[in-house]
Design brief:
heterodimer, A: 561 residues, mainly alpha, Sodium/glucose cotransporter, 2 domains, 0% strand, B: 42 residues, 1 helix, rod-shaped
Chain lengths: 561, 42
């Protein structure tokens, strides 16, 4: 990082905050603050939806995932377009016409207060924790790149995002998302171009793809049906469909985006835009990882991308073992490099492919053994350096100026996701608890009461910002907790979707069925997660089906009280 | 909702039908293209 990179990062952070705060000095109404006065055009809402879904780990981790296991991750998104279409004629018109602030508000009208309160409470707990994780994961990576203490990177993201979300509300969040998406997409496009130009002069982009193909990285679609495998065509289409229905249809952080659209139609188009653009955008990021892999065939990458962990292993009790692995890695890399060069020659020798596959398999095995040494040294149960591949590459190979732009893009991805979450957490707390239970002093809707609620909403945003930063600072030190928090979310998603399915599709469903069905759904998912090795993508389907079945049974069976 | 509003709504749904189909067809095309890419480079 040199001065120009720092200047770009600092200019980006200042611009986002100042731009977000602009307009917050004007007097605002509750509807303006929480739903941008339902005035946003479809393209701004669509970009905001995409920015909220894309966290920094999506940007950095997906590139690393493509480097290590190829394009197969794209299958995760195969259910998304169908989910968008289904939501266009269910959730969007339902929520818009109900004139609600939160998705859970609708559940009280359809069922009862306790169902609304429970779903909103689950959202607050899971999203409050995951908001911390969304900050923590890139904070650790950025702290290594920038040479800052983790607490400073957490605060740089958390504080600045909280500031413009707290004062600017949904409108500021949405317009900041639009600009942040511009920073991310332009950064990805230019980087892609630069990475392809990093290939040696005798290696074309087609040659790079040939090499990636020999190592199996272009096998994007896996047609095998295996419940234990996370990324297959079927888990993406079915499990992914339910996950996306739950995320875009029942999660306030997304529902709030399309509720701020000018009309039902514009809300619909924003979701369709997401359905059209998501897969190409993810593919672009994945191909960036594929080309990083191709460049590293001709330039020796580190054996372990997480430098700090590698240094600890080298200095630790298993340092000798680690050094030997490094020497073997060096030798196998040279063999693979020669084989890769041979592979793309027009008159490639017949042994080139076999030799390349042998050396590549050996390199993968050495990297696995190195991870085991790190685990033994640090005492961690799991170690993965996937999230460090892209940051290592950009700091070593990307020209200055563009490096600053990319760091700003990582900040942008993290901040856009966090802003959407904080905005939704504040809205759900304000509307489903503060206003609903009359903590503002009155249950009546009046201008004076709305002003009070709006002021409270700002402070509640600040409160959730503090919670997210505190979680981030502690989670960053306890790596395994990140996985726990991510899994926690998947326990509830499908079950909450089940309650909405009961509400929208089954007029005979009653409040008792919805409430106990929700609890039965959560219990079923917990049981499946603890007793089987079924992939987490299926939890959403299991939870949803369990809620609908139990909910309908309890609704239809007469119970004497 | 009166009869005219319902008719308007039905027309709108019909108009959106084309966009829904476009999104789904493009998704299927991506899946096929990616499957083809894997086969081509096998």
């Amino acid at each position: 990082m040199i001065l120009i990179d720092w200047a770009i990062v600092v200019a980006y952070l200042l611009y986002v905050v100042i731009d977000g705060l602009r307009g917050s000095s004007q007097p605002q109404k509750l509807d303006n603050f929480l739903l941008a006065g339902r005035s946003l055009p479809w393209w701004a809402v669509g970009l905001s939806i995409m920015a909220t879904q894309m966290s920094a780990i999506t940007l950095v981790g997906t590139t690393g995932q493509a480097y290590s296991s190829g394009l197969r991750f794209i299958q995760f998104y195969f259910g998304l377009p169908l989910a968008m279409v289904l939501l266009c004629f269910t959730a969007v018109p339902f929520f818009h016409r109900a004139r609600v602030f939160t998705a859970y508000e609708y559940l009280e009208r359809r069922f009862d207060t306790r169902t609304r309160t429970l779903t909103s409470f689950i959202f607050l707990i899971t999203r409050g924790l995951s908001c911390g994780v969304i900050i923590a994961a890139p904070a650790v990576i950025l702290s290594i790149i920038l040479g800052w203490d983790e607490r400073w990177t957490v605060l740089a993201m958390g504080f600045s995002t909280t500031l413009y979300t707290m004062f600017g509300g949904t409108k500021a969040v949405a317009w900041a998302d639009v600009k942040q998406m511009a920073v991310i997409v332009s950064g990805v496009l230019v980087t892609m171009f630069v990475i392809v130009h990093q290939l040696p002069p005798d290696v074309s982009w087609f040659g790079a793809l040939q090499i990636a193909a020999v190592s199996g990285k272009l096998q994007a679609v896996d047609t095998h049906f295996d419940l234990h495998e996370t990324y297959t065509l079927w888990s993406g289409l079915l499990g992914g469909l339910f996950l996306m229905l739950a995320y875009f249809g029942c999660d306030q952080s997304q529902v709030q985006r399309y509720l701020s659209a000018r009309s039902v139609d514009e809300g619909r188009v924003s979701l369709l835009f997401n359905g059209l653009a998501k897969i190409p955008l993810q593919l672009m990021i994945l191909f960036m990882g594929i080309f990083v892999f191709a460049v590293y065939q001709f330039e020796r990458p580190p054996m372990v991308f997480q430098k700090v962990a590698a240094q600890r292993a080298l200095a630790g009790p298993y340092g000798d073992e680690f050094s030997k692995l490094n020497a073997r890695y060096e030798s196998e890399f040279n063999s693979r490099q020669l084989a890769a060069h041979d592979l793309i020659k027009p008159d490639a020798p017949s042994t080139a492919k076999t030799e390349y596959i042998r050396a590549n398999t050996e390199i993968d095995s050495i990297r696995r053994q190195a991870s085991e040494v790190i685990q033994k040294t640090t005492g961690e149960t799991k170690f993965s350096d996937v999230n460090y591949i892209f940051p290592t590459f950009i700091t070593q190979r990307i020209p200055h100026g563009l490096l600053g732009w990319l760091i700003a893009a990582i900040f942008a991805a993290a901040m856009s996701a966090v802003a959407g979450e904080l905005n939704a957490l504040s809205t759900a707390t304000t509307i489903d608890f503060y206003r609903r239970f009359g903590w503002s002093g009155s249950l009546e809707q009046s201008e004076k009461n709305d002003e009070k609620i709006l002021r409270a909403s700002r402070w509640i945003t600040a409160f959730w910002g503090c919670v997210a930063c505190t979680v981030a600072m502690n989670v960053a030190r306890l790596g395994s907790l990140i996985e726990v928090v991510n899994k926690l979310g998947s326990y509830f998603y499908g079950s909450i979707l089940g309650v909405f399915v009961l509400a929208v599709c089954f007029p005979m469903a009653k409040s008792r069925g919805a409430f106990y069905g929700l609890m039965a759904g959560i219990a079923t998912v917990a049981l499946v997660a603890h007793t089987t090795t079924v992939s987490f993508l299926w939890y959403n389907l299991v939870g949803c089906v369990a809620v609908v079945m139990v909910g309908l049974t309890l609704s239809l069976v007469p119970i004497k009280t | 909702m009166n009869t005219n509003e319902t008719e308007d709504q039905n027309k709108k749904e019909h108009r959106y039908g084309k966009y829904y189909a476009l999104v789904l067809v493009l998704n299927a095309s991506w899946i096929l293209a990616l499957w083809g890419l894997g086969k081509f480079f096998k």
